[in-house]
Design a protein that fits this description.
This protein is of the alpha+beta class. The protein has a single domain, classed as Trna Endonuclease, Chain: A, domain 1 (3-Layer(aba) Sandwich), CATH 3.40.1350. The protein is about 40% helix and about 25% strand. Helix 2 runs antiparallel to helix 3 and helix 3 packs across helix 6. It is globular, with a radius of gyration of 15 Å.
Length: about 180
Amino acid sequence: MAPPGDIYERELKSLLSGEEKTIVKMVKTCSESERASYESVIGRPFVVVRAAGSLGIDLVALRGDFSFPIEVKSSSEDTIHFSRSARMTEQADALREECRRSGLLPLYAYRLKRVRGDPWRIFSIPIDEELKGALGLLQRRVPPMDVSGNGNYIMRWESGIKLSELLGFMEFCGE
């Protein structure tokens, strides 16, 4: 049996890959604008690869000028505190460093369980570098995670950008 987090990792992979069955299921409780954004991926899907290893990367999504690594987290709580897990902090720092070296934007996808509408929120790990081109546009659009006074990452679900909104933005950019 797959670990619980794998369910949502596979769900996000299917959504970004434009798998119609998963999208139809996802949009049942979504607003019309959320539905339209998700459905736009059917015609312009991402190539999504599941990543193996401990760098804090679950998926890599590629489409046109956009390419980004994604770490997937899920919870029934609306806030995830990385201070509760040294491993989560180490993974986030490793992902941040790898992305700094390669000029990529490190993203986290946060799936809130048992919520109606779009349950996905996207965050970036705060980075000092200003990215260029399409990734620069994405960097300015995706909110960074909060960082506590002790330097620990915090994801507050309501502070992230809806996945549907991000997909609509990327479609609007026209790549």
